[in-house]
C-alpha cells in the first residue's frame, strides 16, 4: 500500500483534525506546527504569534482510497479560506489558511484548486490560502492529539 502525507492549516487544529479523520482513506492524523522559525515549538510559544508557525494537521492517507483532490475539497469546505490570519474567533498568524505541500504534484494541484475556486466565484473575497512546500512538521503535545475525540466531543466552533 502506498502511503502519502498532506498538511493543512485551517485555524484551530482540533476541529480540523476531527474532520479529516472522518474521511475514508485517511489512515492517521497528527496535529502540530509548521512554517515557523523555532525548533521544537510548544503550544504556548506558537500562541504568542511570534514563532511564525501555523497550527496544522498532518494527514496520512492511502491515495488508492482517497485522492489528494478530495482532501483539498475537504480543506476548503471546512474553513473560510478568505480570512487572513484568523478563523472565527481565533486570530494570529498561527491560524492562517495554508497548505504545506509534500510533492510538486501536490503543489500544482493546490494552486489549480485555488484557481478553479476563484474562477468559479466560490467566495466573495479573494482566497488568502498560502501554498508552500512542506518544511519541518513539529508534532504538538500529546494532549492536543485527537483532542475532541478524547473529550467525547464531535466539534468545536468551526
TrEMBL record:
UniProt keyword annotation of Oxidoreductase present: yes
Single GO MF descriptor: peptide-methionine (S)-S-oxide reductase activity
Catalytic residues identified in the record: 12
Oxidoreductase recorded as keyword: yes
The EC number(s) this enzyme carries: 1.8.4.11
Domain Peptide methionine sulphoxide reductase MsrA: 5-156
Keywords annotated in UniProt: Oxidoreductase
Organism domain of life: Bacteria
Catalytic activity annotation: L-methionyl-[protein] + [thioredoxin]-disulfide + H2O = L-methionyl-(S)-S-oxide-[protein] + [thioredoxin]-dithiol; [thioredoxin]-disulfide + L-methionine + H2O = L-methionine (S)-S-oxide + [thioredoxin]-dithiol
One family name in Pfam for this protein: PMSR
Alphabetized HAMAP family for the sequence: MsrA
Family: Belongs to the MsrA Met sulfoxide reductase family.
Function description: Has an important function as a repair enzyme for proteins that have been inactivated by oxidation. Catalyzes the reversible oxidation-reduction of methionine sulfoxide in proteins to methionine.
Protein name: Peptide methionine sulfoxide reductase MsrA
Protein's organism: Tunturiibacter gelidiferens
Amino acid at each position: 500500500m502506498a502511503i502519502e502525507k498532506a498538511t493543512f492549516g485551517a485555524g484551530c487544529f482540533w476541529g480540523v483534525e476531527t474532520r479529516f479523520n472522518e474521511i475514508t482513506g485517511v489512515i492517521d492524523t497528527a496535529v502540530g506546527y509548521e512554517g515557523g522559525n523555532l525548533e521544537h515549538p510548544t503550544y504556548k510559544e506558537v500562541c504568542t504569534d511570534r514563532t511564525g508557525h501555523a497550527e496544522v494537521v498532518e494527514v496520512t492517507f492511502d491515495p488508492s482510497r482517497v485522492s489528494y483532490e478530495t482532501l483539498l475539497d475537504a480543506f476548503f469546505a471546512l474553513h473560510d479560506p478568505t480570512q487572513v490570519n484568523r478563523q472565527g474567533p481565533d486570530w494570529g498568524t498561527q491560524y492562517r489558511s495554508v497548505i504545506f505541500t509534500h510533492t510538486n504534484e501536490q503543489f500544482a494541484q493546490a494552486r489549480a484548486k485555488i484557481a478553479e475556486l476563484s474562477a468559479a466565484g466560490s467566495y466573495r473575497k479573494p482566497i488568502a490560502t498560502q501554498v508552500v512546500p512542506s518544511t519541518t512538521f513539529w508534532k504538538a503535545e500529546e494532549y492536543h492529539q485527537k483532542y475532541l475525540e478524547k473529550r467525547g466531543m464531535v466539534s468545536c466552533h468551526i
